[in-house]
Amino acid sequence: MRELELTSPVTSGHVPVLIEEVIHALAPTDGAIMVDGTYGGGGYARAALAVANITLIGIDRDPEAMERAWAHAGKDPRLVPAPGRFGELEAIVHAAGRGDKVDGVMLDLGVSSFQIDEAGRGFSFMRDGPLDMRMEKKGPSAADAVNHLTEGELADIFHILGEEPAARRVARGIVYRRKIQKFQTTLELAECIERSLGGRRGKPTHPATRCFQALRMWVNDETGELVRSLAAAERVLKPGGRLVVVTFHSIEDRIVKLFLRARSGNEPGASRHLPGAPKGKTPTFEVLQRKAIEPGEAELEANPRSRSARLRWALRTEAPSWDAPPDEGFRLPGLKQLEGVA
Ligand SMILES: C[S@@+](CC[C@H](N)C(=O)[O-])C[C@H]1O[C@@H](n2cnc3c(N)ncnc32)[C@H](O)[C@@H]1O
């Protein structure tokens, strides 16, 4: 593995987080087959391809990210663009035709700056646009959710995924407002949430921050995707292969932590939301660094978006995979009602 030179621009539009630490944990070596499950702006991909002569399967569910991946692959044929969700990692790896097993999987969860910064994608409460938030541009949108879910379901989403203390008040405000007029735009929702929470009152962050993040996670089933991807990574990694995950949300970090704790034999650890940890199973992962890696001060200063990033990684052992997780993952109630709406 060659040294990563960060002086060369790794990407434009999205500043990759914890990039040195990710590449160090992934440790690409010549001839390896690796997966970037979240191609995004291609920052991690470029860095991994720069340090070793690898084949990299670049996955993203966002068609716009895949356009960037195809452009990149035109210049570097070692990159194999593979549109889809990382929850379907195993099928995607098989379809990529580079063998059934890989040497490394990296995931950089959440959204890219490309997505947040484009008003038309509807992710941001700072930019007026259609209330969309769908990374894949299909399925029920954020507008469908706020216009059709029950008050209780919305409150659960804001409470569980957003950790919003006033979740119920926000849900009530949304249901009241939509009786008068349905939501269409990001700013309509941001204003309604702000009003429900009693305005800004000198708060350092926008009052809609938590609820917007929660809705985005729900619309894209982000926790369900993560749960499925961890179990899929267990199945596709070769012995000695590396799993590297960067999260930006405490729930996601907890999912990764509990999965690795259970799979490395350090926990009885089974939970309703996680792949089970039946007794008597041989550990499928070895965790060399228990504590999550966090950005240092220099990175925090240069890129405030990195403040909630946590990196965890582990080595695949030779043990056979455990049972797959329940497909439902961490999904909240309510999606059924939206089927057929969009
Ligand atoms: C934080 S960005 C990745 C940035 C990338 N590491 C870089 O350096 O440019 C996350 C990306 O993951 C994609 N993504 C999120 N969930 C996904 C999923 N379940 N399957 C595939 N891609 C996903 C998003 O569309 C977004 O492009």
Explain briefly what this protein structure is.
This protein has 342 residues and is of the alpha/beta class. The protein is built from 14 helices and seven strands.
What does this structure look like?
The protein is built from 14 helices and 7 strands. It is α/β, with parallel strands linked by helices and 342 residues long. The chain has 2 domains: 190 residues, Rossmann fold (3-Layer(aba) Sandwich); 83 residues, DNA polymerase, domain 1, CATH 1.10.150.170. A 7-stranded mixed sheet has the order 3-2-1-4-5-7-6, with helices on both faces. It is globular and about 60 Å long. The relative contact order is 0.13. Bound molecules: S-adenosylmethionine (SAM).
Q: Could you give the order of strands across the largest sheet?
A: 3-2-1-4-5-7-6
Taken as a percent bin, the fraction of beta residues is 5-15%
Biggest sheet features: 7 strands, mixed
Write out the CATH superfamily name of the largest domain: Vaccinia Virus protein VP39
SS elements, strand count: 7
Distance between the termini: 47 Å
Q: Number of helix segments?
A: 14
Helical content stands at 25-40%
Helix/strand class: alpha/beta
> Could you name the CATH topology of the largest domain?
Rossmann fold
CATH class of the largest domain: Alpha Beta
What small molecules does this complex bind? Answer: S-adenosylmethionine
